[in-house]
């Protein structure tokens, strides 16, 4: 069985990466709510291939701290440069949008803000506390940057007690430095480990992109590093070049290989593994079922 396909053999995307796109009218509700409040989503800014599908199903991942990142990772289409000042009303706007959309699972991510003394951790905390204050508070999942390794900034986020803290490793050690400017592989692993060491009962999650030139052994080694840090949930997906400015895809991984990684992930002890071509760290089609069941069970006690 061929387990990966070199992109040079293709003039267009392989069949398993072609799919029907939902109608624009099916996505209009979330677009309206976001634009009305001047909010941002990683779905749009990151040119996620799942945006139309998720929007049509009333699923969205909010992006806080503005829409300009202080880093310039080679795989990411989010704008980089000098960010604008923070919006002091952003936590309230997020909470209002969540209530209007009736979301029960909210994912919050952000640009990286190396220009801020706390890396934006205070705003993360404010958003979580605001969401917890509304009636029927949703499941709160945060996809955080590395805060330049500032442990006090990380603890500011953890003290607000989100349900899940996600930090994406994105790729294997040998490629990491070339595609993730300003980041550090071991630092990213340590963030997940620290979340567990704090003993607050917060679940952790990370994600990998495939197709950047990594080997299968390197992927497995990275998965082992994540489990060693106590990572509970893992998302593995195909890297798809969002624009001509980003690094090209080197390989398209076939669906069978994603299933193989999923099997290996469960063997390593991950509680939930979402592995597939279109899987992304915040792709809610792959909801964290076991954790959601646990939350419901605990709330009924």
Q: Describe it for me?
A:
- The protein has eleven helices and twelve strands.
- The protein has one domain (25-300): TIM Barrel (Alpha-Beta Barrel).
- The model is unreliable at 1-10 and 295-301 (pLDDT under 50).
- The strands form three sheets. An eight-stranded mixed sheet has the order 2-3-6-7-8-9-10-12, sandwiched between helices. It has a two-stranded antiparallel ribbon with strand order 1-11.
- By secondary structure, the protein is α/β, with parallel strands linked by helices.
Keywords:
disordered N terminus, alpha/beta, globular, disordered C terminus, 16% strand
Layout of secondary structure:
Elements: E1 4-6, H1 28-37, E2 40-41, H2 42-45, H3 51-56, E3 61-64, E4 68-69, E5 79-80, H4 90-101, E6 105-110, H5 121-133, E7 139-143, H6 151-159, E8 164-166, H7 173-179, H8 185-197, E9 203-210, H9 216-228, E10 233-238, E11 251-253, H10 255-268, E12 272-275, H11 289-300
Helix pairs in contact: 1-4, 4-5, 5-6, 9-10
Summarize this entry quickly.
With 301 residues, the chain is an alpha/beta fold.
Q: What Rg do the Cα atoms give?
A: 18 Å
Order of helices and strands: EHEHHEEEHEHEHEHHEHEEHEH
CATH topology: TIM Barrel
Calculate the terminal CA-CA distance, rounded to whole Å: 49 Å
Low-pLDDT residue spans? 1-10, 295-301
Structural class: alpha/beta
Relative strand content: 15-25%
Overall number of structural domains: 1
Approximate helicity band: 25-40%
The assigned CATH architecture is Alpha-Beta Barrel
Give the oligomer, counting copies of the same chain as homo and different chains as hetero: single chain
Spatial strand sequence of the major β-sheet: 2-3-6-7-8-9-10-12
The shape, in one word, is: globular
Number of helices, counting only DSSP H or I runs of 4 residues or more:
11
CATH superfamily: Aldolase class I
Quickly name the level 1 CATH class: Alpha Beta
Give the number of DSSP strands. Answer: 12
Name the average pLDDT: 86
